[in-house]
Design brief:
The structure is a single chain. By secondary structure, the protein is of the alpha+beta class. The chain contains 19 helices and 10 strands. Strands 2-1-4-5 form a 4-stranded mixed beta sheet, with no helix packed on it. The protein has a 4-stranded antiparallel beta sheet with strand order 6-7-3-8, sandwiched between helices. Helix 1 (2-15) packs across helix 4. It is globular.
């Protein structure tokens, strides 16, 4: 009877509906107070797996996995189906976890285009069940591990953000460190050495079952084109544990840079070190590259890494002016990607309704503006904003199609009859027409605002 009651309580944990919990973000401010991190402090409990399987931790993990959504793994089960599956199977899975006998499924290999072009990035999609278990493990390990990480590490950490990393880089440049050693690790997530990583984890974790489970996730294998291949190295991008493990392996790099007294910012595998001269930069590049190769068994991407002026390099989508008081600018590569995406959305041959196109633009522009609105060059945003509206005017002008309809539509939107007629009778194409006074009056900012298209603007309070 008692066993049955416990089983029902566990099942109820996965039936409870709750609001999703978004990760703690520090996007509200530029700086966050960082306590002095202690030396490595292992999570000494030999009962970590019991903490992983604790009811409240599991409920929180399920909410997070459901909120993050994501594609099904190799078993085809969606996150929406996961609660019902757990309701039936959790007691057995819990028993396996506590006994140290649980075996994760291989991840599903998918490839996505890299944002900057130049090939694809390989992702490994775990099953919904394995994402849930990894999330539960993450929630137990991260609080104690994160407290020991470097204050100069900003990626995948509660209370830390890309904007904070960019602001810190800007601070170094303003202090006179006007040469950057820009280090990019070659295929970092695919090249992490499992033995080195497990040795670092074992310093912090005493529970052998947790160690065994993490190694099982690292060695679970990859399914691609129906075939499963072993994984001898790497931490799959796409799994909840991967960011924490990547920070753990690169924390040794952070501590080495701190030991040398260098000024640096690291976000995931993207590290920028700031020095005062080209000569010092070349020396640091050589010695740090050697450390990464010898100590971490990783490789520096020679094509993407370089020593240069911050105004000539990009960091997390931004670059900096060469002024005495450097300002944050949007990197040219980011502007190119922005224009390519907007061109794709507003392509004149798409044949979709204007409200639908406006909705697609709204989703993209809001996210883009929330991030790049952190720049300090408002004229760039104004120019891009004007360019986006011009692309929309081109699309609408083409949709209006005939001269009579163009005339009627402009009249409805308040254009004088003579101006509407001369504009409608023009033989010019959509691009030059998008600059005419008549079309600007008909399709002004207020028109696009009603459609829900947001304006790009500086958001200094990000």
């Amino acid at each position: 009877m008692r066993d049955k009651r416990q089983k029902n309580q566990l099942q109820l944990a996965f039936l409870a509906e709750a609001r999703s919990e978004a990760p703690n973000s520090a996007s509200e401010g530029i700086e966050s107070p960082i306590a002095e991190h202690p030396a490595e402090s292992p999570t000494t409990s030999e009962h970590l797996m019991e903490e992983v399987c604790e009811r409240e931790n599991l409920k929180k993990a399920l909410r997070r996995v459901k909120a993050n959504k994501g594609s099904p793994g190799i078993d085809g089960m969606s996150v929406e189906e996961l609660p019902e599956y757990l309701k039936e199977h959790w007691p057995i899975i819990r028993e396996q976890l506590l006994a140290g006998t649980y075996r994760p499924a291989p991840v599903k290999r998918v490839e996505i285009p890299k944002p900057a072009g130049g090939g694809t990035r390989k992702l490994g999609i775990p099953t919904a069940l394995d994402r849930f278990i990894q999330q539960a493990v993450l929630q137990v390990l991260q609080p104690s591990w994160d407290a020991t990480f470097s204050a100069h590490s900003y990626g995948f950490r509660p209370g830390r953000s890309q904007h904070q990393a960019v602001a810190q880089a800007q601070h170094y440049i303003a202090e006179g460190y006007r040469v950057v050693v820009d280090i990019d690790l070659e295929k970092f997530f695919d090249q992490v050495n499992h033995d080195i990583l497990m040795e670092r984890i074992a310093r912090r974790v005493d529970d052998k079952r947790v160690l065994k489970l993490i190694r099982a996730y690292l060695r679970a294998g990859v399914m691609e084109n129906g075939l499963v291949s072993a994984t001898e190295r790497g931490t799959p991008q796409g799994s909840p544990l991967s960011p924490l493990l990547s920070n753990l392996i690169l924390d040794e790099l952070d501590k080495e840079l701190e030991r040398r007294g260098l000024r640096f910012c690291r976000y995931a595998d993207d590290s920028n070190i700031y020095v005062k001269s080209e000569r010092a930069g070349q020396r640091v590049m050589a010695s740090v590259s050697q450390f990464i190769n010898r100590k971490l068994k990783l490789r520096v991407n020679q094509e993407k890494s370089a020593v240069g002026r911050p105004s000539e390099r990009k960091f997390l989508g931004f670059t900096f002016t060469a002024d005495d008081e450097p300002k944050r600018k949007i990197a040219p590569q980011a502007i190119k990607r922005f224009k390519d995406k907007v061109r794709e959305i507003t392509r004149r041959s798409r044949g979709i309704s204007v409200p639908r196109m406006a909705e697609e633009l709204r989703e993209y522009l809001q996210g883009w503006s929330n991030y790049f609105g952190y720049c300090q060059t408002p004229i760039v945003l104004r120019d891009l904003d004007s360019w986006v509206r011009r692309k929309l005017r081109c699309y609408i002008w083409k949709q209006w199609e005939t001269k009579p309809n163009r005339y009627q539509q402009m009249r409805k939107l308040g254009v004088r009859a003579d101006h509407a007629k001369s504009t409608a009778d023009s033989s010019h194409g959509p691009w030059p027409m998008s600059r005419t006074p008549s079309l600007h009056k008909a399709l002004d900012k207020a028109y696009f605002r009603k459609l829900g298209v947001p304006e790009l603007e500086v958001r200094m309070n990000v």
